[in-house]
Design a protein that fits this description.
Layout (H helix, E strand, L loop, with lengths): L2 H24 L2 H7 L4 H7 L3 H14 L2 H9 L4 H13 L7 H16 L4 H28 L8 H24 L11 H15 L4
Helix pairs in contact: 1-2, 1-4, 1-7, 2-3, 4-7, 4-8, 5-6, 5-8, 6-8, 6-10, 8-9, 9-10
Length: 208
């Protein structure tokens, strides 16, 4: 990796750290420059607006699952087993080390409601989600071909359910576990997500 690319990566890492700690609005470009040990003018040359950095950080968070999904796709398992592995990857989001990522995604979703971002920048987020969606779709198709998935729904709807519904549920469950126990009672547990996962797998296998 050349020095220019490494410097850019360093800026994104610094932005991700500060966004996680202070949120998007309270994190200034000057603070990001200081954290990454560059001048603010240098930071602006790489990222003309803070929104560009926000998009890069969110893309990184979304696509951090890609290597795991690629390994799942390349395995010799049946389609339904690959779906199981993929859902388990989502469930890992409730682990302590992933909570900053979840908080960033949730914060971003709220941020763009009140602070609209240019459509061209949001297209980059859509591309990241589509990359994940296409990987899920390929597993659904494979499962139908090998007979392990018996589903009357379209492949696209099944893939969308995994990405949107199950992924959102995992994020919400994880955030609930951050809150004090007296705020939400009972606080959802990892076992609840596993139950939802097993019900979904049964549905995909035509056992409903």
């Amino acid at each position: 990796m050349d020095k220019k690319m490494e410097r850019r990566k360093s800026m994104i890492r610094a932005a991700r750290k500060l966004f996680s700690l202070h949120g998007f609005e309270k994190t200034t470009m000057q603070k990001i420059a200081d954290e990454s040990n560059v001048g603010v003018a240098t930071l602006f040359r790489h990222f003309p607006k803070k929104e560009h950095l926000i998009i890069e950080v969110v893309k990184e968070v979304i696509e951090q699952q890609v290597p795991h999904f690629e390994a799942i796709i390349q395995s010799n398992k049946k389609g339904i087993e690959k779906v199981d592995d993929m859902l388990n990857t989502y469930i890992k989001y409730i682990l302590e080390e992933d909570r900053d990522s979840i908080k960033l995604l949730e914060t971003f979703e709220m941020y763009i409601v009140f602070m609209p971002i240019e459509s061209e920048l949001l297209d980059e987020i859509r591309k990241s989600y589509k990359k994940i969606s296409d990987m899920i779709l390929s597993i659904i198709i494979e499962g139908k071909e090998d007979g392990s998935i018996q589903l009357s729904l379209s492949n696209e709807i099944a893939a969308s359910t995994i990405l949107n519904m199950f992924g959102t549920a995992v994020k919400k469950y994880s955030l609930y576990n951050i809150l004090p126990e007296d705020v939400i009672s009972p606080v959802p547990k990892k076992e609840h997500l596993i139950l939802v996962k097993d019900l979904f797998l049964s549905y995909l296998q035509g056992k409903q």
